[in-house]
Amino acid sequence: MTDLNESGPQGEAPPPTFGDLTKMQRSRALARMMVRTLLTVAILITVYAVMAPSDLADGNVGVRLVGSLLVFAGVLAMQVFAITRDPLPELRAGSSMITAVTLLVLMFAMTYATLASASPEWFSQPLDKSSAIYFTITILGTVGFGDITAVSHTARWVVTAQIVVDLTLVVALGRVLFSAARAGRVRQERLASDAGRTPTDEDPTT
């Protein structure tokens, strides 16, 4: 493990990475990340569970889908900002990845459940919110068991939109979040250099 008191080339030690932390500090950092991630996922699932698809059935499907994607983009932007400000940006990036994928799955699942509520015949079998999550994940995982399929043109276009989003966003998502983590690490090093402090002055897990 790197010596936290070892100075950099200009006499200032860079902020500690996750590997620089003591075993207790790593355990605390991981515990905080897990609690924060599980709490966020639980909130998202709770919101999904209490929302009634029938209440969202009115309106244009395309408008609702675009609106959902804009919300997703906004959440992603906030996550990127939080990563660059976090003392341990690498851990925050992992938490944000889980949050973003969960939100993406629930967003499309609600779209499918809403379509099925308004027009059950658009799918090969009735969809409730639970089966909509299952359907969404099979598309995301590209397994396509075939037990549930989109029948109408509109439903097929939504499935196509999800596939495109999955192929582009999910692949790019990891790059964006972990690029933000690297930017956050650079920012931490710059702040440490400007402040003339060493990593031992502050516990990043608190």
Q: Low-confidence parts, pLDDT < 50 over ≥5 residues?
A: 1-12
Q: What is the CA-based Rg, rounded?
A: 21 Å
Roughly what percent helix?
Answer: 55-70%
The count of helical stretches stands at: 5
In angstroms, what separates the terminal alpha carbons? 20 Å
What coarse outline follows from CA principal-axis ratios? elongated
Structural class: mainly alpha
* Series of H and E elements: HHHHH
Kindly state the number of beta strands: 0
Describe this protein's structure.
The chain is mostly helical and 206 residues long. The protein is 67% helix and 0% strand. The longest helix has 43 residues, at 153-195. The protein starts with 22 loop residues before the first helix and ends in an 11-residue tail after the last helix.
Topology, please?
Blueprint: H1 23-50, H2 61-85, H3 89-118, H4 129-140, H5 153-195
Summary of the model, kept short:
The protein has helices spanning 23-50, 61-85, 89-118, 129-140, 153-195. By secondary structure, it is mainly α.
Descriptors for this entry?
mainly alpha, about 210 residues, about 65% helix
